[in-house]
Automatic annotation (TrEMBL):
This is Uncharacterized protein YcbX. Gene3D superfamilies: PK beta-barrel domain-like. Residues 101-250 form the MOSC domain. Signal peptide: none annotated. It comes from the Bacteria. It comes from Kaistia dalseonensis.
């Protein structure tokens, strides 16, 4: 039976993953605390009073800014304090305050240097997730597909390149791509798979070294005539999930 190998969320878009021991999934919502902040790279047009999908390139993101992987960040969801290591002395600021946001913007402005397209700004909006699809989905990666991709490339591929929420063991390679439209139970939650994940050059960045050392979208395109790896699901019944929980198809 396929099962959860690991769970992650990404409190600040483009920055470090946060491993989870468990997650409470809510109906038609992303994982709580996932991509609740983004760093605007020059004016984006984002309106906190009417939050909507914006292209990822309007924010700091690995697709354009590989150097972000050189930073190790942690976020305290109770206090709102974000810690950054790798940009000089360890830095901590409260992202819920104007002073904390200003200090963060100043630090990252220095770190980003010539990759700044304008003023950096910490963005958030109540209930909004800065996902790449603008829908309240949870993202999945099939670890067998990642292993098969590594065989095509000729070296192991770190699954964290794909920045998914839920990593699955026990599926055949690429079987996840055929799940669109299928319903399933996962732990105490229920879901329906809704959309394949089309990969961009962000996956070319090694999450440890920050080097662009692989061509994952190109490899997928040459091998399969598409650039899909992973799948999104919408939660249809709330419930808790944790590593080891099985995926049972309806």
């Amino acid at each position: 039976m396929p099962e959860i190998a690991s769970l992650y969320r990404y409190p600040v878009k483009g920055f470090s993953p946060e491993p989870l021991d468990a997650a409470e999934l809510a109906v038609s919502r992303p994982i709580a605390g996932d991509r609740i902040y983004a760093i605007e790279n020059g004016p984006s047009g984002f309106d906190p009073a009417a939050p909507a999908l914006q292209p990822k390139v309007k924010f700091l993101c690995l697709m354009k800014n590989a150097r972000l992987a050189r930073l190790h960040t942690t976020f305290d969801h109770e206090s709102g304090r974000w810690t950054i290591e790798g940009a000089g002395a360890p830095f901590t600021a409260d992202l819920s305050t104007e002073a904390g946001q200003a200090a963060t913007e100043a630090l990252l402005s220095d770190f980003m240097a010539e990759e700044r397209r304008g003023p950096l700004k910490v963005l958030s909006a109540p209930g909004h997730s800065f996902s790449d699809v603008g829908k309240p989905y949870v993202s999945f990666i099939n670890l067998a597909s990642v292993a098969a991709l590594g065989e095509l490339i000729g070296q192991p591929v770190d699954p964290l390149r794909f920045r998914a929420n839920i990593y699955l063991d026990g599926l055949d390679p690429w079987a996840d791509l055929d799940l669109v439209g299928r319903a399933a139970r996962l732990g105490e939650a229920e879901l329906v798979f809704v959309k394949r994940t089309r990969r961009c050059v962000a996956t070319n960045v090694d999450p440890v070294t920050a080097e662009r050392d692989l061509d994952i979208p190109g490899t997928l395109q040459r091998a399969f005539d598409h650039m899909d790896c992973g799948i999104y699901a919408e939660i249809t019944r709330a419930g808790a999930v944790r590593p080891g929980d099985g995926l049972v198809f309806a």
